[in-house]
Amino acid sequence: MNIYNEIILNTTAVYYYEPHTLEMRKEWFDSRMKAGFPIFVAEENNNILGLSSIGPFRAFDAYKYTVENTIHVAAAARGKGIGKLLMPPIIEAAKQIDLHTIVAGIDALNEASLRLHKNFGFEEAAHFKQVGFKFGRWLDLKFLQLVLDTPVNPVEKL
Question: Is 156 helix (H, G, I), strand (E, B) or coil?
């Protein structure tokens, strides 16, 4: 929760204004677990340095093979390769549960996150101009995507 709230309060990586409560973070965690989406944690000496996960992209049936990823790194651990450790497990997990596309919504000025995703094969798919407003300015959002070679035999029915 501390990592997420620091990101809310000090960065444009998350387009929220107010910190989340423990209950809100528990709901997020529980919804991931209930849907079968993994959460990975990077820790050192019992200190959480970052986390990554995948979750629903859109709530329509035909999007069931597409997820959105989440990677958050503690302020003190940024620039130390934590994101590079947290990305491979979510890509592998997506393949294991037969997903096809991972989408990342990234603030257009977040060069570190854009570079991280591109290093793992994500390609820019969209650039939405002035869709967010935070810290007194309009924010652009980029969508990057990674298309996987799974599932082998997709089906239309749930």
Answer: coil
